[in-house]
Structure formats: C-alpha cells, structure tokens
Amino acid sequence: MSEARVTRIGLLGRGTVGGAFHELIADRADAVEAASGIRPEISGVLRRSEGDFESILEGSDLIVELIGGIDPARDYVLRALRAGKPVVTANKQLVAQCGDELFEAARSAGVQIRYEAAVAGAVPVIRVVQEGHGVLPIERISGIVNGTTNFILSEMASTGASYADVLARAQELGYAEADPTDDVNGADAAAKMAILARLAFDTRVGLEDVSFEGITEIRPDDLAYAKDLGLSLKLLGVAEKHGGAISVRVFPCFLYRGHPLAPVEGPFNAVTLEGPTISEITISGPGAGGIETASAVLADVSSILTGEAPVHFADRRLEILDDLESSFYLHLEVADEPGVLARVADVIGRNGISVKSVVQQGTGREASLVMVTHRAPERSFYAALEQISDLDFLGAAPRAIRVIEKEYS
Amino acid sequence: MSEARVTRIGLLGRGTVGGAFHELIADRADAVEAASGIRPEISGVLRRSEGDFESILEGSDLIVELIGGIDPARDYVLRALRAGKPVVTANKQLVAQCGDELFEAARSAGVQIRYEAAVAGAVPVIRVVQEGHGVLPIERISGIVNGTTNFILSEMASTGASYADVLARAQELGYAEADPTDDVNGADAAAKMAILARLAFDTRVGLEDVSFEGITEIRPDDLAYAKDLGLSLKLLGVAEKHGGAISVRVFPCFLYRGHPLAPVEGPFNAVTLEGPTISEITISGPGAGGIETASAVLADVSSILTGEAPVHFADRRLEILDDLESSFYLHLEVADEPGVLARVADVIGRNGISVKSVVQQGTGREASLVMVTHRAPERSFYAALEQISDLDFLGAAPRAIRVIEKEYS
C-alpha cells in the first residue's frame, strides 16, 4: 500500500461555520479519502486574533474562506487563487460583489473556486444549476433564499403578531442577528440571486444589477388578507430570462396556492428552477445553519479533490431589464366617505391599469380598501401609486405588494 | 479550428421518451458540444419492427436504452457494456432487478452506466444522492416516486371520489396506463427505492429486497379522516439505515402536517434525503413525462461526454431488516353495540400495543371505529390485526395504514 496523498487545507475563519467545518473534516476525512484517494487535513487556521495569512497560504494546498464580508476576504481569496491554490468559500457577498474579479483570477491561474455554501446552505442548488448548464436551459429561478425573513413572515402569518414583535422573537431564537438589516431589507437575498443568475444564464451579474425590497413594511393586515384568500406571503428572489436580456429582483409577494414555494415555512430555503425541458424542479432544505453550511463546504472540497469539472465562468454580459409587468395588491387606509373608491379608481384607470378585485374592510375612519390589479407595466403602477399617495383622504402611506399568479392552469 | 469530435449514439426504443430524446438531441447538440467539446449525433435507432441491434451497436460510441422492461433490454445493455460502450438508461426495472450484473459488467469493461432518468424524471435525485455519497452520509430517503398514485390520492382527497372512479379519470387524462397494476400496487415505486437505497447506502439492493404495498384498498373514509386531522395520505417509499442494516419499503401512510412531502400534490415526484450533516433536503418536480425523462437522459449523456465521475458501484451487501416499529391508523367497520370497543382494546393491549386515540363515527350498523396506535413493533400490530379480523362484529375486513409522525418538535 502506498502512503495516502494529503491535501493541506488552510482554514480562514473559525466562527460557527468554521468550527463546524473543522469538526466535520476530522469526522469525514476517511470518507473523502475513500471517494477521492486524497486525505484532507487542516494545516492552518486564521482567526481574527491569531495566525498569519501568508504563512497559512504557504503551508496549504487549498484555501477554505469562511471569514465573510469583503475585506480582507477578497484580498485573501485573490492571493490564494493567484498562488495557484483552489478556493472554497461560503461568502455570498464576496461572490456577488467581486465575482468577475475572482473568476478571472481563478481562470488565469487554472484553479477552481467553488461556492455551493454561499446559497442555501446544504441545499445543493449551485450544483444542480451548474450541471444542467447549457444542456438543460433555465428560463426562471425563483427562490426563498433568506431563512430569517421566511421565519418572520411565517410567524407573522401564523400568530398575527407585528413585524417588530416577531423580529424580536426571531432574534431571541437565533434566527435573526442582532443587526438584521441585510436580511430584512433583501440585500442578503439579492446577493444570492445574483450568484444564481450568473450561473443559470451564463452572464456577468453583480449585486449592483439586482433590485431589492425587504419586508420591513409588511403589516399583519397584509398577512390576514393572504390567509383569507389562501395565498402565501413570501420574500422571493426572481431571476428571469427575457429573450436576450435578464431581470434579477427580490421583493415580497403573494404566491398563489399550489406554487411550489408556497408551502415553504419557517427558516427554510427553497429554489425553483423552470425551463422548457426540465419543466420545474424545486430543491429545499434548512437554511444556513453551521453544520449544513459546513457540509456544503466539505462537498465542494471533495468535488475539487475528485476532479469534478469547475464551476463555469461567464464571459458575456446580458442586458438587465428593470421595467417588467406585474400584478399588485394595493392596501389603502381611507376614510369611508362617498367618492373615495371612484377617485382611486380614476387614478388607476388613467395610468392604464385594470383592477381585478376590490374589497373594502371596516367602516368610518378605520376603513381600508384592498385592490388587486391585473398585470400591467410596473412603471405605470408606480406612477399611479405616487398619484394615489397625494390623495387627501389617505390615513397612511399606501402599501403595494406584488402578486404572483398561476401562469398555466 | 479543428473539426468537432462526434459521439455516435445508438438509440434503443422510439416511444414517447425515445421520440422526445431524438428531438432534444437535435435541439441541444450545440449546447452539449459547447459543454464537452464533443457533438452528440444519433447514429442508429432500434424500433420494435425495425433495425438490427448488432449493427447499431457497431456503429455507435454510446447506447441509450429506452425500451423498458427486462427482455431484451438486459441483453442489449450487457452486450453494449461488454463491447466497451457506455450506456444511459431510463429503465428502472432493469436497474432495480439486474443492477449487480449491469454494474459488474460496466466495471469490468471500464465504462459508465448512468440512470438518472430511471427515478423521478428530470428531478436530479440520483445526481444529488451520488454526489453526497460517503462524504455527506444519508440516513433516510423518503420519496413520492410514483406520479400515478400521487395523482390518484390527491384527487381522492380533493373530490371525495372512490379509488375506482379516480383511477378511471386518471386513465382518461393519461396519468395512469391502461394496465396500471405496477403503479397502483407499489411495484414501480419499489424499483425506484431499490435504486436509491443502493446508491445512498452503498449496498447491493435489488427489487426482491423491497417490501411494498399499494393504494388499491384506500377508501374515501381514510382520506376524510386525513383531511379532518390535517394529515396527508401518500404512497411513500422509505429507505433507512439502522446501524449496519437497512430497510427499504413502500406503503401508503399518513404524513403529519409540515412533513416536507405532505404538500406534494398531483402527478409530482419528490424525494427527501436526511442525514446528520445535511439535515434534510427535498427535491421535487413533475414525474416522468416524455420531455422531462428525455432531459434527464440527455444530462447523463452530457455527463459522460464531459468526463464526470461514474456512478459509484456497491461492493458490500448490508442486511435487510423487515421488523420495524410504526404507528398505525386502524379503521374498523363495526356494529355500534356495548362491549365492542372493549373487545378490540383487549386484543390490542394483549399484543403490547398502546392506543393514542379512538374515535367512533356514526351509529348503529354503519358505525366505524378509528384508532391510532403509538409506535410498536409491526409484527405485534399485524398479530393483533389478525386476531381483530376474527371478531364476529366486524362489517368488513379491518384497514390499517401507517402514520408518520414528527420526530422532533
């Protein structure tokens, strides 16, 4: 028997995921060796307060980056790639914001960079998108890719509690961070959607190409409406091809009953891929817990050691569309006076938008008017919304939420 | 520019899937060539009434087997492998029943056999199980892997119609075949679970190792009960590790609300993988339509051309367990007389089974008694069931259905 070949792994970051990965490598080294013939070993760990990157780089064959954030992660990853060492990262912001630079460096050096753990933890969505790449075209990706916001919306729906109360509870349970800004405003989901769009559509997409809205303005009223109609309210990422252009967006929306993402509750992640040959495929699982994320990192390490094909690098840049069509739910707090509906309907009609349903709830000063529109250019809808905001009988700013309806029945 | 390399594909079978594959190859040849550098071309087609296998084999570099059934598919696939030609097949019965022989032939010849399309059409479950293999251990696979039966159960649940009526409707709609035996008795699902268990647990498993029950005895009453309690009734395949042994079974069962497979409706397929590092991952999509199955075949062809690692071959054989523990729902049609419940409870208690809930529905000669038991050895439950069958006040044979409860809450 010949002595086992060894790959020395330099581990950057020793937080929750880093710690879980360190333990997992110890536990699964035999399995990786059985699969690849190469035994992984941690040769150095860079902590915030301890360790020197240069010497860790020199003493390793492969770098696992679990620091998070752009600096110094970007510098470390680029230096590793330029030194000819493959990199596995779980850093969604790094891949979404600096993707072009990283992939170019990897290609120049002829080494791999893999990032399965950057999107949806252990749910192998990068792998599934990549492997269908080109051969099985994808036209649309829809995803619940942020567990914190899905937990909050699920809790609001089941308890009727306010956003603020549920956020506080999510923080107590560890489902939301002390500073939840990037989760609740949609920025985290936007980074993940940029990564998926790049891969699925073979195009250079960065975080700056993704328009996003969060869930901070969602009220219990909106969820009550959803419940009455059997709809689910979700923070959805949607990346679509429109001929030779694409759109990538994140927004809260009502999903029709039967949408593959409608039943996804709590801190789960799920992604639906649609295309003419695959019809629709949905992959779901728990979001980014420590062990799940570490397992995705380990799968990437194993893929590099077994010599799997590298993740595809996009050379082209497709146009980004931002004027699309949608249906909207519109919630207005109004005084219940004669003529109110007529004035709202007039503004909407003058902007070329047709109304599908109207319901007035309550009476007197506490009334609210809920309208759902047919599909129309979003630009027209937002123009109408601005004009409605100026109407003198509104008790609060109008709230608008997209509605995703069944396309084929 | 050098001339493109070409792979000549011998296509066996030109039914629905074969026809879809033929068209798909024409449509996606450029994409496969872009991904692999090799252009796929159909060099020969074997139809029932036309073509000679030997000359097709001789004129091809790769065989796609879409005939179905054991004979002559087994002979053709073995001859192709022994001639050193890789094979892609969508034939679940062939892989489940002749797996050891096929994989041994492939290994001896040093060529690949791939079979993504044999389970769940375009849903890439083979791929996901294979890639986690060994590195990310799987402890349990649960699957809705037969679209016909899921369609029938969904329709029975939503309409209250009988099994026979819904089956007739499924046949009209093309969701069930003229002879639906293999679907409705669980044999089709059993073959797919054998394939998944082999791959996930790295063990030789054949169709003969899988115990299966179908849905032909399910009554509208059972679905009404499920609806009242918010449960879903599904035909489930379950493959589990129990230490160094495994079990592989197919049975109808009630799933608790929130089970990842509970919301899967209509002719869809879905598979949930569970393990200590991945937690749980669910993959779902439409079952085996022509284009979806053809796309899975094309993905396998592309994997071979791009040089992806072959599907792992199992060398070991783990023990198959068949005495497991379950909770059961028990439905008895009884005359509503004093002492009936006491006599049933006595039989159950004497077999060491404890009862979780009892509900009597209706009165007089039309009454029914619905019990749900706590988990107990299935052997004990079936012993009790046999004794209950002998009781003189039963209006019909007792019906028993497993109940899958939430393990962690």
Structural description of this entry:
The structure is a homodimer of 409-residue chains. With 409 residues, chain A is of the alpha/beta class. Chain A folds into 3 domains: 5-118, NAD(P)-binding Rossmann-like Domain (Rossmann fold, 3-Layer(aba) Sandwich), CATH 3.40.50; 125-286, Dihydrodipicolinate Reductase, domain 2; 325-404, ACT domain (Alpha-Beta Plaits). The first copy, chain A, is 38% helix and 25% strand. The first copy, chain A, is built from 13 helices and 17 strands. In chain A, helix 12 (340-350) runs antiparallel to helix 13. The radius of gyration of chain A is 24 Å and the shape is elongated. Chain A starts with a strand and ends in a 5-residue tail after the last strand. The mean pLDDT of chain A is 92.
